[in-house]
């Protein structure tokens, strides 16, 4: 079954304490290449059937109206998960 992935991130002007905590600890763990971290959310919507433009449009609407809080978050990605992504 196809899967649509929705990524939601806090708006840039919103404080991200979890991202700040992660960023503060990266150098302590030896990771010095990263300047900042923003922590977001990922949703996976399983589709029963073919993913058409109509289904993608419906997923975008769901993302904007139900999966995110438009006051503090942006929907940054709505896409079909490729079959070659594999599962861990």
Q: Would you kindly provide a written description of the structure presented here, covering whatever features stand out?
A:
- The protein is α+β, with helices and mostly antiparallel strands and 88 residues long.
- It has a single domain, classed as 2-Layer Sandwich (Mth169, Chain: A).
- 27% of the residues lie in helices and 25% in strands.
- It has 2 helices and 3 strands; from the N terminus they run E-H-E-H-E.
- It has a 3-stranded antiparallel sheet, with helices on one face.
- The longest helix is centred in the C-terminal third of the chain and has 15 residues.
- It is elongated, with a radius of gyration of 16 Å.
- The model has no long low-confidence stretch (mean pLDDT 93).
- Part of the FGAM synthase complex composed of 1 PurL, 1 PurQ and 2 PurS subunits.
- Keywords: ATP-binding, Cytoplasm, Ligase, Nucleotide-binding, Purine biosynthesis.
Q: Please give the domain count.
A: 1
Largest sheet: 3 strands, antiparallel
The proportion of residues in beta strands is 25-35%
Report the CATH C-level class.
Answer: Alpha Beta
What's the N-to-C terminus distance?
A: 17 Å
Count of DSSP H/I helices: 2
Low-confidence segments, given as residue ranges, are none
Radius of gyration equals 16 Å
Mean pLDDT: 93
Percent helix range: 25-40%
Element-by-element helix/strand order = EHEHE
CATH H level, superfamily name:
Phosphoribosylformylglycinamidine synthase subunit PurS
Keywords: ATP-binding, Cytoplasm, Ligase, Nucleotide-binding, Purine biosynthesis
Organism: Citricoccus muralis
GO molecular function: phosphoribosylformylglycinamidine synthase activity
Protein name: Phosphoribosylformylglycinamidine synthase subunit PurS
């Amino acid at each position: 079954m196809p899967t649509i992935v929705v990524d939601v991130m806090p708006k840039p002007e919103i404080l991200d304490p979890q991202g700040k905590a992660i960023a503060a600890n990266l150098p302590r763990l030896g990771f010095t290449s990263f300047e900042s971290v923003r922590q977001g959310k990922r949703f996976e919507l399983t589709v029963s059937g073919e993913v058409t433009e109509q289904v993608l449009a419906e997923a975008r609407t769901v993302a904007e109206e139900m999966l995110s809080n438009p006051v503090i978050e942006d929907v940054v990605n709505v896409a079909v998960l490729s079959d070659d992504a594999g599962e861990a």
